[in-house]
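Obj.: predict assembly geometry.
Materials: sequence records (below).
Method: joint structure prediction, all chains together.
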Amino acid sequence: MRKFLSSKLLLVALVVASLCTAAPAQKLNGSTPKNDSATSPVKLALPLKDGSLRFAVIGDTGSGSSKQSDVGNMMVQYRAAFPFEFVLMMGDNLYGGETPQDFEKKFAEPYRKLLSDKVKFYATLGNHDQPLQVNYENFNMNGKEYYRFKKGNVAFYSLNSNYMDKKQVAWLESELAKDTSEWKVCFFHHPPYSSAKKHGSDGQLREVVEPIFVKYGVDVVLTGHDHVYERIKPQKGIYYFVSGAGGQLRTGDVKESSPLIEKSYDQDMHFMLFEVAGDQMYFQAISRTGETIDSGVITRRKK
Amino acid sequence: MKHITEDLLRAVGVSLIVLSFTVAGAVAQKSDHPALAPPVTSPAEKAAIQAFENQVKDYVKLHNQVREQAPKLSKDATPEQIQTYRTTLEGSLRNARKGAKRGDLFTPDIASFIRRTLKNEFQGKDRKDLRDIAFETELQGVVLRVNYPYAASAELSEMPATLLAKLPQLPKEVRYRFVGRNLLLVDRESNVILDFMPDALP
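Observations (raw C-alpha coordinates):
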Protein backbone atom coordinates (compact mmCIF):
# COMPACT_ATOMS: atom_id res chain seq x y z
CA MET A 1 0.00 0.00 0.00
CA ARG A 2 2.80 2.39 1.02
CA LYS A 3 4.72 1.46 -2.14
CA PHE A 4 1.62 2.13 -4.21
CA LEU A 5 1.15 5.54 -2.54
CA SER A 6 4.80 6.41 -3.01
CA SER A 7 4.72 5.65 -6.71
CA LYS A 8 1.47 7.58 -7.03
CA LEU A 9 3.04 10.56 -5.27
CA LEU A 10 6.10 10.30 -7.50
CA LEU A 11 3.87 10.29 -10.56
CA VAL A 12 1.98 13.37 -9.35
CA ALA A 13 5.29 15.13 -8.63
CA LEU A 14 6.56 14.30 -12.11
CA VAL A 15 3.40 15.60 -13.75
CA VAL A 16 3.55 18.83 -11.70
CA ALA A 17 7.24 19.27 -12.52
CA SER A 18 6.63 18.74 -16.23
CA LEU A 19 3.76 21.26 -16.22
CA CYS A 20 5.97 23.83 -14.52
CA THR A 21 8.80 23.50 -17.00
CA ALA A 22 6.86 23.11 -20.25
CA ALA A 23 5.92 26.70 -20.90
CA PRO A 24 8.82 28.84 -19.60
CA ALA A 25 11.48 30.24 -21.85
CA GLN A 26 14.10 27.67 -22.67
CA LYS A 27 17.75 28.44 -23.02
CA LEU A 28 19.00 28.36 -26.58
CA ASN A 29 21.81 25.91 -26.98
CA GLY A 30 25.03 27.66 -27.86
CA SER A 31 25.49 31.01 -29.50
CA THR A 32 26.29 31.36 -33.14
CA PRO A 33 28.61 34.19 -34.09
CA LYS A 34 27.33 35.56 -37.37
CA ASN A 35 30.08 38.08 -37.80
CA ASP A 36 33.19 37.24 -39.77
CA SER A 37 35.58 39.35 -37.78
CA ALA A 38 37.47 37.39 -35.13
CA THR A 39 37.57 40.47 -32.92
CA SER A 40 33.87 41.26 -33.20
CA PRO A 41 32.02 41.25 -29.88
CA VAL A 42 28.89 40.03 -31.63
CA LYS A 43 27.72 36.66 -30.34
CA LEU A 44 24.27 36.16 -31.69
CA ALA A 45 22.01 33.74 -29.85
CA LEU A 46 19.04 34.09 -32.18
CA PRO A 47 18.12 31.68 -34.98
CA LEU A 48 17.73 34.21 -37.83
CA LYS A 49 14.88 32.31 -39.41
CA ASP A 50 13.63 33.23 -42.87
CA GLY A 51 10.80 35.73 -42.78
CA SER A 52 10.97 36.29 -39.04
CA LEU A 53 10.12 39.61 -37.38
CA ARG A 54 13.15 41.23 -35.74
CA PHE A 55 13.26 44.14 -33.36
CA ALA A 56 15.32 45.64 -30.54
CA VAL A 57 14.37 47.03 -27.14
CA ILE A 58 15.98 49.82 -25.13
CA GLY A 59 14.85 51.57 -21.99
CA ASP A 60 15.71 54.58 -19.84
CA THR A 61 18.13 55.76 -22.44
CA GLY A 62 18.09 59.55 -22.55
CA SER A 63 21.10 60.47 -20.43
CA GLY A 64 23.34 61.62 -23.27
CA SER A 65 26.26 59.83 -21.62
CA SER A 66 29.13 58.19 -23.48
CA LYS A 67 27.89 54.84 -22.19
CA GLN A 68 24.51 55.40 -23.83
CA SER A 69 26.42 55.89 -27.08
CA ASP A 70 28.36 52.67 -26.38
CA VAL A 71 25.03 50.83 -26.23
CA GLY A 72 23.93 52.54 -29.46
CA ASN A 73 27.17 51.50 -31.16
CA MET A 74 26.81 47.92 -29.95
CA MET A 75 23.28 47.86 -31.39
CA VAL A 76 24.75 48.87 -34.74
CA GLN A 77 27.30 46.05 -34.57
CA TYR A 78 24.64 43.50 -33.73
CA ARG A 79 22.39 44.84 -36.46
CA ALA A 80 25.03 43.92 -39.03
CA ALA A 81 24.50 40.31 -37.98
CA PHE A 82 20.83 40.59 -37.03
CA PRO A 83 19.07 43.16 -39.21
CA PHE A 84 16.32 44.31 -36.89
CA GLU A 85 13.65 46.49 -38.42
CA PHE A 86 12.63 48.70 -35.50
CA VAL A 87 13.35 49.58 -31.88
CA LEU A 88 10.91 49.81 -28.96
CA MET A 89 11.77 52.44 -26.35
CA MET A 90 10.62 51.84 -22.77
CA GLY A 91 10.47 55.50 -21.73
CA ASP A 92 12.67 58.07 -20.00
CA ASN A 93 13.75 58.99 -23.49
CA LEU A 94 15.13 62.38 -22.41
CA TYR A 95 16.35 63.15 -18.89
CA GLY A 96 16.60 66.65 -17.47
CA GLY A 97 15.32 68.91 -20.24
CA GLU A 98 13.80 68.81 -23.70
CA THR A 99 15.41 71.56 -25.74
CA PRO A 100 16.37 70.79 -29.34
CA GLN A 101 19.92 70.27 -28.01
CA ASP A 102 18.62 67.64 -25.60
CA PHE A 103 16.87 65.77 -28.41
CA GLU A 104 20.13 65.83 -30.33
CA LYS A 105 22.49 64.80 -27.55
CA LYS A 106 20.26 62.27 -25.81
CA PHE A 107 18.60 60.62 -28.80
CA ALA A 108 19.66 61.58 -32.32
CA GLU A 109 23.40 61.42 -31.72
CA PRO A 110 23.62 58.06 -29.89
CA TYR A 111 21.44 56.37 -32.53
CA ARG A 112 22.49 58.34 -35.60
CA LYS A 113 23.61 55.31 -37.60
CA LEU A 114 20.39 53.42 -36.90
CA LEU A 115 18.30 56.46 -37.82
CA SER A 116 20.22 56.95 -41.04
CA ASP A 117 19.66 53.27 -41.84
CA LYS A 118 15.90 53.97 -41.56
CA VAL A 119 15.43 51.95 -38.39
CA LYS A 120 12.17 53.13 -36.83
CA PHE A 121 11.92 53.89 -33.13
CA TYR A 122 8.58 53.48 -31.34
CA ALA A 123 8.56 55.25 -28.00
CA THR A 124 6.52 55.21 -24.84
CA LEU A 125 6.52 57.92 -22.17
CA GLY A 126 8.43 57.57 -18.91
CA ASN A 127 8.27 59.71 -15.78
CA HIS A 128 11.01 61.97 -17.14
CA ASP A 129 9.27 62.59 -20.47
CA GLN A 130 7.09 65.56 -21.31
CA PRO A 131 3.81 64.74 -23.09
CA LEU A 132 4.73 66.67 -26.26
CA GLN A 133 7.31 64.02 -27.10
CA VAL A 134 4.39 62.23 -28.72
CA ASN A 135 4.71 64.71 -31.59
CA TYR A 136 8.43 64.12 -32.17
CA GLU A 137 9.00 62.78 -35.67
CA ASN A 138 11.48 60.07 -34.66
CA PHE A 139 9.40 58.58 -31.86
CA ASN A 140 6.60 57.53 -34.23
CA MET A 141 3.87 58.02 -31.65
CA ASN A 142 1.63 59.83 -34.12
CA GLY A 143 0.64 62.43 -31.54
CA LYS A 144 -0.74 59.79 -29.15
CA GLU A 145 0.22 58.89 -25.61
CA TYR A 146 -0.99 55.33 -26.16
CA TYR A 147 -1.22 53.57 -29.48
CA ARG A 148 -1.18 50.25 -31.26
CA PHE A 149 0.68 49.07 -34.32
CA LYS A 150 1.07 45.73 -35.99
CA LYS A 151 4.08 44.06 -37.56
CA GLY A 152 3.67 40.64 -39.10
CA ASN A 153 1.73 38.45 -36.69
CA VAL A 154 2.51 40.65 -33.67
CA ALA A 155 0.38 43.49 -32.28
CA PHE A 156 2.27 46.04 -30.19
CA TYR A 157 0.57 48.26 -27.62
CA SER A 158 2.44 51.26 -26.26
CA LEU A 159 0.79 52.48 -23.05
CA ASN A 160 1.27 55.57 -20.94
CA SER A 161 1.80 54.18 -17.44
CA ASN A 162 2.33 57.70 -16.05
CA TYR A 163 -1.35 58.39 -16.46
CA MET A 164 -3.48 55.27 -16.74
CA ASP A 165 -6.85 56.96 -16.61
CA LYS A 166 -10.22 55.39 -17.33
CA LYS A 167 -10.12 56.48 -20.97
CA GLN A 168 -6.87 54.66 -21.58
CA VAL A 169 -8.06 51.53 -19.78
CA ALA A 170 -11.27 51.52 -21.87
CA TRP A 171 -9.23 51.98 -25.06
CA LEU A 172 -6.90 49.12 -24.15
CA GLU A 173 -9.77 46.76 -23.40
CA SER A 174 -11.60 47.74 -26.54
CA GLU A 175 -8.55 47.25 -28.79
CA LEU A 176 -7.48 43.97 -27.21
CA ALA A 177 -11.01 42.59 -27.35
CA LYS A 178 -11.06 42.77 -31.15
CA ASP A 179 -7.40 41.93 -31.71
CA THR A 180 -6.93 38.64 -33.53
CA SER A 181 -3.14 38.88 -33.81
CA GLU A 182 -1.22 35.76 -32.90
CA TRP A 183 1.08 37.64 -30.53
CA LYS A 184 0.16 40.57 -28.30
CA VAL A 185 3.00 42.58 -26.79
CA CYS A 186 2.45 45.53 -24.45
CA PHE A 187 5.20 47.98 -23.59
CA PHE A 188 5.27 50.85 -21.14
CA HIS A 189 7.51 52.42 -18.54
CA HIS A 190 6.56 51.26 -15.03
CA PRO A 191 7.04 47.54 -14.34
CA PRO A 192 4.15 45.61 -12.80
CA TYR A 193 6.81 43.17 -11.59
CA SER A 194 10.38 44.06 -10.70
CA SER A 195 12.96 42.89 -8.19
CA ALA A 196 14.89 46.16 -8.12
CA LYS A 197 15.38 47.91 -4.79
CA LYS A 198 14.89 51.46 -6.07
CA HIS A 199 11.35 51.14 -7.45
CA GLY A 200 10.34 47.48 -7.61
CA SER A 201 6.95 46.14 -8.64
CA ASP A 202 4.28 48.73 -9.37
CA GLY A 203 1.44 47.01 -7.56
CA GLN A 204 -1.26 49.58 -8.16
CA LEU A 205 -0.62 49.60 -11.92
CA ARG A 206 -0.60 45.80 -11.88
CA GLU A 207 -3.96 45.81 -10.09
CA VAL A 208 -5.47 47.59 -13.07
CA VAL A 209 -3.67 46.20 -16.13
CA GLU A 210 -2.91 42.60 -15.23
CA PRO A 211 -6.54 41.37 -15.27
CA ILE A 212 -6.90 42.92 -18.73
CA PHE A 213 -3.69 41.30 -19.99
CA VAL A 214 -4.82 37.93 -18.68
CA LYS A 215 -8.37 38.26 -20.02
CA TYR A 216 -7.31 39.17 -23.54
CA GLY A 217 -4.27 36.92 -23.87
CA VAL A 218 -1.33 39.32 -23.81
CA ASP A 219 1.81 37.26 -24.24
CA VAL A 220 4.71 39.53 -23.38
CA VAL A 221 5.07 42.77 -21.39
CA LEU A 222 8.16 44.95 -21.79
CA THR A 223 8.98 47.73 -19.31
CA GLY A 224 11.78 49.91 -17.94
CA HIS A 225 11.97 52.40 -15.01
CA ASP A 226 14.32 50.27 -12.89
CA HIS A 227 17.82 50.68 -14.30
CA VAL A 228 18.60 46.97 -14.54
CA TYR A 229 17.76 43.95 -16.65
CA GLU A 230 15.31 41.39 -15.38
CA ARG A 231 13.34 38.54 -16.83
CA ILE A 232 10.51 37.74 -14.46
CA LYS A 233 9.25 34.23 -13.89
CA PRO A 234 6.04 33.98 -15.95
CA GLN A 235 3.12 35.46 -14.05
CA LYS A 236 -0.33 34.09 -14.88
CA GLY A 237 1.10 32.89 -18.18
CA ILE A 238 2.58 36.26 -19.16
CA TYR A 239 6.29 36.96 -19.70
CA TYR A 240 7.48 40.22 -18.16
CA PHE A 241 10.82 41.88 -18.87
CA VAL A 242 12.42 44.93 -17.25
CA SER A 243 14.85 46.58 -19.64
CA GLY A 244 15.70 49.91 -18.03
CA ALA A 245 19.43 50.28 -18.47
CA GLY A 246 19.98 51.58 -21.98
CA GLY A 247 21.49 54.85 -20.78
CA GLN A 248 21.29 54.71 -17.00
CA LEU A 249 22.51 52.03 -14.62
CA ARG A 250 21.94 51.22 -10.95
CA THR A 251 24.71 48.77 -10.17
CA GLY A 252 23.78 46.18 -7.57
CA ASP A 253 20.13 47.25 -7.46
CA VAL A 254 18.60 43.83 -8.00
CA LYS A 255 17.32 42.15 -4.83
CA GLU A 256 18.93 38.78 -5.44
CA SER A 257 16.61 36.99 -3.02
CA SER A 258 13.50 38.05 -4.96
CA PRO A 259 11.31 35.07 -5.89
CA LEU A 260 10.31 36.86 -9.11
CA ILE A 261 13.69 36.56 -10.80
CA GLU A 262 14.22 34.19 -13.67
CA LYS A 263 17.33 36.05 -14.76
CA SER A 264 18.73 39.45 -13.81
CA TYR A 265 21.72 41.67 -14.50
CA ASP A 266 22.75 44.95 -12.90
CA GLN A 267 26.46 45.28 -13.70
CA ASP A 268 26.33 47.21 -16.97
CA MET A 269 23.94 48.84 -19.42
CA HIS A 270 22.22 46.67 -21.99
CA PHE A 271 19.75 46.35 -24.85
CA MET A 272 17.63 43.47 -26.10
CA LEU A 273 16.93 41.75 -29.40
CA PHE A 274 13.78 39.82 -30.29
CA GLU A 275 12.94 37.50 -33.15
CA VAL A 276 9.41 36.22 -33.75
CA ALA A 277 8.93 33.22 -36.01
CA GLY A 278 5.49 31.59 -35.96
CA ASP A 279 4.75 30.40 -32.44
CA GLN A 280 8.25 31.13 -31.16
CA MET A 281 9.61 34.39 -29.80
CA TYR A 282 13.37 34.32 -29.29
CA PHE A 283 15.12 36.92 -27.17
CA GLN A 284 18.65 37.93 -26.29
CA ALA A 285 19.78 40.56 -23.76
CA ILE A 286 23.18 42.03 -24.55
CA SER A 287 25.46 44.15 -22.38
CA ARG A 288 27.07 47.42 -23.43
CA THR A 289 30.26 45.49 -24.24
CA GLY A 290 28.50 42.83 -26.31
CA GLU A 291 28.22 40.02 -23.78
CA THR A 292 25.08 37.91 -23.80
CA ILE A 293 23.46 38.30 -20.41
CA ASP A 294 20.35 36.26 -21.14
CA SER A 295 18.71 34.44 -24.02
CA GLY A 296 15.89 32.01 -24.63
CA VAL A 297 12.69 31.28 -26.45
CA ILE A 298 9.06 31.77 -25.51
CA THR A 299 6.46 29.52 -27.06
CA ARG A 300 3.10 31.10 -27.69
CA ARG A 301 0.27 29.80 -25.54
CA LYS A 302 -2.76 28.33 -27.17
CA LYS A 303 -5.70 30.67 -26.53
CA MET B 1 -43.16 32.92 -51.66
CA LYS B 2 -39.83 31.12 -51.50
CA HIS B 3 -38.05 34.35 -52.46
CA ILE B 4 -39.88 36.25 -49.76
CA THR B 5 -38.90 33.66 -47.14
CA GLU B 6 -35.25 33.71 -48.26
CA ASP B 7 -35.22 37.52 -48.23
CA LEU B 8 -36.78 37.55 -44.79
CA LEU B 9 -34.23 35.04 -43.47
CA ARG B 10 -31.39 37.02 -45.02
CA ALA B 11 -32.66 40.25 -43.45
CA VAL B 12 -33.01 38.60 -40.04
CA GLY B 13 -29.50 37.14 -40.38
CA VAL B 14 -27.96 40.49 -41.27
CA SER B 15 -29.81 42.15 -38.40
CA LEU B 16 -28.52 39.54 -35.97
CA ILE B 17 -24.96 40.01 -37.20
CA VAL B 18 -25.22 43.80 -36.91
CA LEU B 19 -26.79 43.44 -33.46
CA SER B 20 -24.05 41.08 -32.26
CA PHE B 21 -21.34 43.49 -33.42
CA THR B 22 -23.14 46.39 -31.74
CA VAL B 23 -23.46 44.48 -28.47
CA ALA B 24 -19.84 43.32 -28.65
CA GLY B 25 -18.72 46.89 -29.30
CA ALA B 26 -20.73 48.19 -26.40
CA VAL B 27 -19.34 45.53 -24.08
CA ALA B 28 -15.79 46.25 -25.20
CA GLN B 29 -16.22 49.98 -24.52
CA LYS B 30 -17.48 49.47 -21.00
CA SER B 31 -14.90 48.65 -18.38
CA ASP B 32 -16.28 46.89 -15.31
CA HIS B 33 -12.88 46.80 -13.66
CA PRO B 34 -13.43 46.61 -9.87
CA ALA B 35 -10.35 48.73 -9.13
CA LEU B 36 -11.78 51.55 -11.23
CA ALA B 37 -15.19 51.83 -9.61
CA PRO B 38 -16.22 55.45 -8.96
CA PRO B 39 -16.45 56.69 -5.35
CA VAL B 40 -19.68 56.92 -3.43
CA THR B 41 -20.64 60.59 -3.23
CA SER B 42 -23.20 62.66 -1.35
CA PRO B 43 -25.50 65.08 -3.24
CA ALA B 44 -23.37 68.00 -2.03
CA GLU B 45 -20.21 66.31 -3.32
CA LYS B 46 -21.89 65.54 -6.63
CA ALA B 47 -22.70 69.23 -6.98
CA ALA B 48 -19.11 70.19 -6.12
CA ILE B 49 -17.75 67.72 -8.70
CA GLN B 50 -20.12 69.06 -11.34
CA ALA B 51 -19.12 72.65 -10.61
CA PHE B 52 -15.41 71.71 -10.77
CA GLU B 53 -15.83 69.85 -14.05
CA ASN B 54 -17.68 72.82 -15.53
CA GLN B 55 -14.89 75.18 -14.52
CA VAL B 56 -12.34 72.86 -16.08
CA LYS B 57 -14.43 72.79 -19.27
CA ASP B 58 -14.36 76.58 -19.31
CA TYR B 59 -10.59 76.44 -19.00
CA VAL B 60 -10.41 74.00 -21.92
CA LYS B 61 -12.39 76.45 -24.07
CA LEU B 62 -9.81 79.10 -23.26
CA HIS B 63 -6.98 76.65 -23.94
CA ASN B 64 -8.45 75.83 -27.35
CA GLN B 65 -8.89 79.49 -28.27
CA VAL B 66 -5.27 80.20 -27.37
CA ARG B 67 -4.12 77.07 -29.16
CA GLU B 68 -5.80 78.19 -32.36
CA GLN B 69 -3.45 81.16 -32.45
CA ALA B 70 -0.29 79.15 -31.73
CA PRO B 71 1.73 77.67 -34.61
CA LYS B 72 0.26 74.30 -35.60
CA LEU B 73 2.12 71.26 -34.27
CA SER B 74 2.20 68.26 -36.57
CA LYS B 75 2.39 64.65 -35.47
CA ASP B 76 5.89 64.40 -36.88
CA ALA B 77 7.40 67.62 -35.61
CA THR B 78 11.03 68.55 -35.15
CA PRO B 79 12.38 69.40 -31.67
CA GLU B 80 12.50 73.06 -32.71
CA GLN B 81 8.83 73.03 -33.70
CA ILE B 82 7.89 71.37 -30.41
CA GLN B 83 9.82 73.95 -28.43
CA THR B 84 8.30 76.87 -30.34
CA TYR B 85 4.81 75.47 -29.87
CA ARG B 86 5.27 74.86 -26.14
CA THR B 87 6.76 78.26 -25.36
CA THR B 88 4.19 80.11 -27.48
CA LEU B 89 1.31 78.24 -25.87
CA GLU B 90 2.75 78.76 -22.40
CA GLY B 91 3.17 82.51 -22.91
CA SER B 92 -0.27 82.94 -24.43
CA LEU B 93 -2.01 80.91 -21.72
CA ARG B 94 -0.29 82.82 -18.94
CA ASN B 95 -1.26 86.05 -20.60
CA ALA B 96 -4.87 84.94 -21.04
CA ARG B 97 -5.06 83.86 -17.38
CA LYS B 98 -3.50 86.94 -15.85
CA GLY B 99 -4.69 87.28 -12.29
CA ALA B 100 -5.37 83.54 -11.87
CA LYS B 101 -4.76 82.51 -8.28
CA ARG B 102 -4.69 79.46 -6.05
CA GLY B 103 -8.18 78.19 -5.26
CA ASP B 104 -9.79 79.40 -8.48
CA LEU B 105 -10.32 75.82 -9.66
CA PHE B 106 -9.69 73.87 -6.46
CA THR B 107 -12.46 75.72 -4.61
CA PRO B 108 -13.06 74.85 -0.94
CA ASP B 109 -15.92 72.48 -1.84
CA ILE B 110 -14.03 70.37 -4.37
CA ALA B 111 -10.83 70.56 -2.33
CA SER B 112 -12.70 69.09 0.60
CA PHE B 113 -14.00 66.20 -1.55
CA ILE B 114 -10.53 65.55 -3.00
CA ARG B 115 -8.90 65.55 0.43
CA ARG B 116 -11.46 63.06 1.70
CA THR B 117 -10.93 60.86 -1.37
CA LEU B 118 -7.15 60.94 -0.97
CA LYS B 119 -7.46 60.14 2.74
CA ASN B 120 -9.69 57.14 2.00
CA GLU B 121 -7.46 55.89 -0.78
CA PHE B 122 -4.19 56.25 1.08
CA GLN B 123 -5.10 54.57 4.33
CA GLY B 124 -4.51 50.93 5.11
CA LYS B 125 -1.51 48.63 4.78
CA ASP B 126 -2.57 47.46 1.33
CA ARG B 127 -2.18 51.03 0.03
CA LYS B 128 1.59 51.10 0.59
CA ASP B 129 2.22 50.94 -3.17
CA LEU B 130 0.05 53.98 -3.67
CA ARG B 131 1.85 55.98 -1.00
CA ASP B 132 5.27 54.94 -2.34
CA ILE B 133 4.37 56.15 -5.83
CA ALA B 134 2.80 59.42 -4.75
CA PHE B 135 5.63 60.35 -2.42
CA GLU B 136 8.31 59.39 -4.93
CA THR B 137 8.46 62.70 -6.74
CA GLU B 138 10.15 65.42 -4.75
CA LEU B 139 9.89 69.13 -5.37
CA GLN B 140 13.21 69.13 -7.33
CA GLY B 141 13.22 72.54 -8.92
CA VAL B 142 9.45 72.83 -9.22
CA VAL B 143 8.23 76.27 -8.18
CA LEU B 144 4.64 76.00 -7.04
CA ARG B 145 3.06 79.12 -8.49
CA VAL B 146 -0.25 79.34 -10.28
CA ASN B 147 0.13 80.34 -13.93
CA TYR B 148 3.84 79.44 -14.00
CA PRO B 149 5.18 76.38 -15.79
CA TYR B 150 6.19 73.13 -14.16
CA ALA B 151 9.92 72.88 -14.92
CA ALA B 152 10.51 70.80 -18.06
CA SER B 153 13.59 69.29 -16.45
CA ALA B 154 11.66 68.03 -13.42
CA GLU B 155 10.45 64.47 -13.05
CA LEU B 156 6.72 63.81 -13.45
CA SER B 157 5.01 61.63 -10.91
CA GLU B 158 3.05 58.60 -11.96
CA MET B 159 -0.61 59.21 -11.17
CA PRO B 160 -1.93 55.95 -9.72
CA ALA B 161 -4.66 54.50 -11.93
CA THR B 162 -6.85 53.45 -9.03
CA LEU B 163 -6.73 56.97 -7.65
CA LEU B 164 -7.43 58.63 -11.00
CA ALA B 165 -10.64 56.64 -11.17
CA LYS B 166 -11.80 58.17 -7.88
CA LEU B 167 -10.97 61.81 -8.61
CA PRO B 168 -13.21 64.04 -10.75
CA GLN B 169 -12.62 63.13 -14.41
CA LEU B 170 -10.59 65.54 -16.51
CA PRO B 171 -10.53 66.25 -20.24
CA LYS B 172 -7.36 65.34 -22.12
CA GLU B 173 -6.01 68.90 -22.03
CA VAL B 174 -5.66 68.94 -18.23
CA ARG B 175 -3.80 66.63 -15.83
CA TYR B 176 -3.49 65.94 -12.13
CA ARG B 177 0.04 65.68 -10.83
CA PHE B 178 1.61 65.07 -7.43
CA VAL B 179 4.71 66.91 -6.37
CA GLY B 180 5.76 66.09 -2.84
CA ARG B 181 2.51 66.15 -0.85
CA ASN B 182 0.90 68.69 -3.18
CA LEU B 183 -1.72 67.98 -5.82
CA LEU B 184 -1.40 70.07 -8.98
CA LEU B 185 -3.68 70.72 -11.89
CA VAL B 186 -1.58 71.38 -15.00
CA ASP B 187 -2.11 72.09 -18.67
CA ARG B 188 -0.90 68.93 -20.42
CA GLU B 189 0.86 70.55 -23.35
CA SER B 190 2.30 73.74 -21.90
CA ASN B 191 2.96 72.50 -18.36
CA VAL B 192 1.42 75.65 -16.92
CA ILE B 193 0.24 75.09 -13.33
CA LEU B 194 -3.46 75.96 -13.32
CA ASP B 195 -3.98 75.47 -9.61
CA PHE B 196 -2.62 73.40 -6.72
CA MET B 197 -3.62 72.08 -3.31
CA PRO B 198 -0.80 72.27 -0.79
CA ASP B 199 -0.41 69.26 1.52
CA ALA B 200 -3.22 67.45 -0.24
CA LEU B 201 -1.78 64.07 0.64
CA PRO B 202 -2.56 62.85 4.15
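Conclusions so far: The longest strand of chain B covers residues 174-179.
To do: check interface contacts against the pulldown list.
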